[in-house]
């Protein structure tokens, strides 16, 4: 209670003894349990370095959690104390698309926990869910009783109770946390978070970097027009997200020209994700098993992340521009709406639309020239969903959704700036352009009957699919 309120209440005739009693009751409670820090916005928080800490491993380069944040701790008798609150949250997955999830401290995913190798940590976990939960600290070396598998290592944390986990962060690396209780439901509802342990000393396989990004790959099944994920879906998810955000709601990764950049990601979906970065080559420098020895690294532009795996990639941002970064499964860079549209490439609709519109005035045809029309079509959507393709760049619709963002490399960026620098201005003469010379007549128009081609009748073959006799 504020001193000012105390005097106000005393002046108003409220018993001063009662006011004092309140203060006395709450003080020991606060001393025992760090006050939970909550967050109410899905915007990417600035990197957080605890103030006033010195010693080995300090200062480290703090991570930037895409559309997330780092959980502050309290230092008590040499132990870093964190307080996670498992609770129902409303997560904005993109502007105009809000979902009822379960998460931690106001958001899904929960806050990133960032410590230094050798730190003693104590995590208070308060369960405000309607059912029991636990937390498993994926990838950590710890006492068996702290591993968080409900029923195996501990009793589940009942609704309304607080449990305490204590261990030493032994290995530097990229880890995650998630429930190991009613796991399928609780992860389908968005319960997960990142854990980063920075090295305490110079490490032969861990380079210092100029920027360090992190996110979790997650997926949901949310019917268009609804607000709560379906929790019994096994494989057929329709919302593909990074840190419970979808393009165009995912922050860009910003880098200064020449920066060494690390990106850490973990996969808590039910399928693999080949993560692809344009414009540079990277190396996988670590997994949830630890840093990869230099002799075991090779260059890549795509790395596949299997279910339950974490990957840590590093590259030099030496090509300026706005580079796409996305999952290479093309339906994972799509929103929920429109997947039920039949393939109509090559179908001639001329005359048909007007006739159908006499019966159904809103009837539209999509797809006879491919699906690109979806990117710019003003289609009426049910409330609270996203179109299959969305997002607009400087040259028009980007035709993406889901697991897509950009790596923005700029020469004129301050070392500590993570602000979106806007769209890249292409230097003159460095962009694809229209050919202005003469073209042979047959190259100008698409073939008359669509995909099959004007002369294709002779080569049409009957499909030997399910109808074939053998
Ligand atoms: Cu994917």
Topology:
Blueprint: H1 3-11, H2 16-32, E1 64-65, E2 74-76, E3 79-94, E4 97-104, E5 113-116, E6 120-127, E7 136-138, E8 162-168, E9 173-178, H3 183-188, E10 193-198, E11 211-220, E12 239-242, E13 253-256, E14 260-267, E15 273-277, E16 282-287, E17 290-291, E18 299-300, E19 302-305, E20 310-316, E21 321-327, H4 352-359, E22 390-393, E23 396-400, E24 404-410
Parallel strand pairs: 1-11, 3-6, 5-10, 11-14, 13-24
Antiparallel strand pairs: 2-3, 3-4, 6-8, 7-9, 9-10, 11-12, 14-20, 15-19, 15-21, 16-17, 16-18, 16-20, 21-24, 22-23
Copper (II) ion is lined by residues 240, 273, 327, 329, 332, 403.
Q: Would you kindly provide a written description of the structure presented here, covering whatever features stand out?
A:
The protein is mainly beta and 470 residues long. It has a single domain, classed as Immunoglobulin-like (Sandwich). Helices cover 9% and strands 29% of the residues. The protein has 4 helices and 24 strands. It has helices at residues 3-11, 16-32, 183-188, 352-359, and strands at 64-65, 74-76, 79-94, 97-104, 113-116, 120-127, 136-138, 162-168, 173-178, 193-198, 211-220, 239-242, 253-256, 260-267, 273-277, 282-287, 290-291, 299-300, 302-305, 310-316, 321-327, 390-393, 396-400, 404-410. Strands 1, 11, 12, 14, 16, 17, 18 and 20 form an 8-stranded mixed β-sheet that branches. Strands 2, 3, 4, 6 and 8 form a 5-stranded mixed β-sheet that branches. A hairpin with a 2-residue loop joins strand 2 and strand 3. The radius of gyration is 27 Å and the shape is globular. 36% of the residues are buried. The structure holds copper (II) ion. Copper (II) ion is lined by residues 240, 273, 327, 329, 332, 403.
């Amino acid at each position: 209670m504020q001193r000012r309120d105390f005097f106000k209440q005393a002046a108003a005739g409220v018993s001063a003894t009662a006011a004092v009693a309140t203060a006395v009751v709450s003080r020991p409670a606060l001393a025992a349990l760090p006050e939970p820090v909550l967050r109410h916005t899905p915007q990417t928080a600035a990197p957080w370095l605890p103030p006033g800490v010195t010693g080995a491993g300090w200062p480290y380069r703090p991570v930037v959690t895409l559309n997330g944040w780092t959980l502050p701790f309290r230092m008590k008798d040499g132990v870093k104390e964190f307080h996670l609150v498992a609770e129902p949250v409303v997560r904005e997955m993109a502007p105009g698309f809000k979902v009822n999830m379960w998460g931690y401290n106001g958001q899904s995913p929960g806050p990133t926990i960032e410590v230094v190798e050798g730190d003693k940590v104590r995590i208070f976990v308060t369960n405000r869910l309607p059912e029991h939960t636990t937390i498993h600290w994926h990838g950590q070396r710890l006492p068996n009783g702290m591993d968080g598998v409900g029923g195996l290592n501990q009793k589940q944390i009942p609704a309304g109770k607080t449990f305490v986990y204590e261990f030493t962060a032994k290995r530097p690396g990229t880890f995650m946390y998630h429930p190991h209780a009613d796991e399928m439901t609780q992860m389908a509802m968005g319960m997960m978070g990142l854990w980063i342990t920075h090295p305490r000393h110079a490490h032969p396989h861990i380079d210092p970097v100029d920027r360090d990004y992190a996110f979790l790959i997650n997926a949901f099944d949310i019917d268009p027009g609804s607000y709560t994920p379906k929790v019994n879906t096994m494989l057929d998810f329709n919302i593909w997200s990074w840190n419970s955000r979808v393009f165009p709601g995912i922050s860009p990764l910003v880098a200064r020209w020449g920066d060494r950049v690390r990106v850490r990601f973990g996969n808590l979906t039910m399928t693999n994700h080949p993560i692809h970065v344009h414009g540079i080559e990277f190396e996988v420098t670590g997994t949830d098993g630890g840093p990869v020895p230099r002799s075991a690294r090779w260059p890549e532009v795509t790395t596949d992340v299997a279910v339950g795996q974490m990957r840590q990639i590093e590259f030099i941002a030496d090509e300026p521009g706005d580079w796409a970064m996305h999952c290479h499964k093309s339906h994972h860079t799509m929103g929920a709406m429109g997947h039920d549209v039949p393939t109509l490439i090559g179908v001639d609709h001329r005359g048909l639309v007007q006739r159908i519109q006499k019966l159904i005035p809103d009837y539209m045809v999509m797809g006879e020239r491919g699906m690109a029309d979806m990117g710019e079509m003003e289609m009426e959507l049910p409330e609270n969903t996203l179109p299959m393709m969305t997002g607009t760049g400087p040259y028009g619709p980007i035709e993406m959704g889901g697991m897509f963002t950009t790596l923005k490399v700029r020469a004129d960026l301050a070392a500590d700036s993570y602000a979106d620098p806007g769209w890249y201005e292409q230097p003159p003469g460095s962009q694809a352009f229209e050919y202005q010379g003469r073209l042979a007549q047959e190259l100008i128009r698409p073939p008359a009957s669509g995909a099959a081609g004007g002369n294709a009748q002779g080569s049409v073959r009957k499909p030997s699919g399910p109808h074939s006799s053998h």
